[in-house]
Specification:
single chain; alpha+beta; N-terminal domain of TfIIb; binds zinc ion; Znf_Ogr/Delta; Zinc finger Ogr/Delta-type domain-containing protein
Length: about 90
């Protein structure tokens, strides 16, 4: 693996397209987080808010938090249902 991914999680400024920097992030619930973001372009100066919501499970946790309920992503659920249908057919 020689490829570098410095900009993998970059959030571009919606106005000028420069990368914005996350200033402060606060977890409001285990699955919901809000952050203040600030454009790095001094000529722009935009500042705003982003929210990150965890919506689905792809692989379940081995140490699950009982208060967190996250459905499997629909495609995986379909595959599981299809497998079950095959198994019982
Ligand atoms: Zn900007």
């Amino acid at each position: 693996m020689s490829m570098q991914h410095h900009n993998k999680h970059r959030i571009p400024c919606p106005h000028c397209g420069e990368s914005a920097r996350i200033r402060k992030s606060q977890g409001l619930t285990p699955v919901y987080r809000e952050a203040i973001i600030e454009c790095r372009n001094e000529d722009c100066g935009w500042r705003g808010k982003v929210s990150i919501e965890i919506t689905h499970t792809i692989a379940p946790s081995d140490i699950p938090n009982p208060t967190v309920v996250l459905p499997f992503v629909p495609r995986i659920q379909e595959l599981v249902m299809a497998q079950k249908a095959l198994a019982t057919a």
